[in-house]
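Entry 14. Ran structure prediction on the chain below.
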Amino acid sequence: MSKRMKAGIAAGILAVICIGIFVYISQTVKGATKDHKIVQGVIFEGKSLGGMTKEEAKKEIEDYIEKEQAKDITFYVDGKKAVTKLSKTGVAWDVEKTVKDAYDVGRSGSIINRYSQVKKDKIIVKIERSYDQKIFDRELDSAAKKIVSEPKNASLKRKNGKFIIIKEKTGYALDKKSTFKAYKKQVEAESFKVPLKVTRKKAEYTSEDMAKVKDKLGTKTTYYGSSAPGRKGNVANGAKMINGTVVYPGETFSVYKAVSPFT
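Output, structure tokens:
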């Protein structure tokens, strides 16, 4: 037998083997996808979608989204936190694309790629999210308004003849753009605790400054027990509006501004 004949026989055998492999691969893929259901091994958020129709998978994904929307999301900085619902922050979930991605496993791409997919034990399908920064910014302003504010100086009040120090508060200037980036990163990671990106602003006068106040500098007492009821009410109300005021170095205190407007 000549070398040419041997080569021809070998080529023929190889061709038969290749055809056989191709037929096997094609039949395997066809068998896995013939019932118009999602192939086995497709996983969404830890749950199998294998064997489901598109409608069944859509219901499963919508149930997941409903639970996600009800979750709290927490913004925090320096031990302070603000909590709101994830559904209020401008995130949306693409259900249709996720269903399509799940259904397309074993049905798109080259035959080799499709065969590889149907033979895998697990293929994870993730949902695609979109984010609206305008909605996010509005909700962030509302949720974090008690945290994000101007600094507040330490102050004093007097009780039982002693000064009591009221601690200063740090102020924050919020970087919404950076906070939005952090928020998207955390949501994509299924984590719902987001650090607020801020610039800290310190109070001008601290508790240490207030601790230096030791003395009563002066007093003035007046009696109004014999006054008419209307005047008594006015004096009490005015004193209440003035009481506890701290005048810091260089400041001017106006009684008129404190108790006005008048009727």
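The first strand starts at residue 42 and ends at 44. Will compare against last week's run tomorrow.
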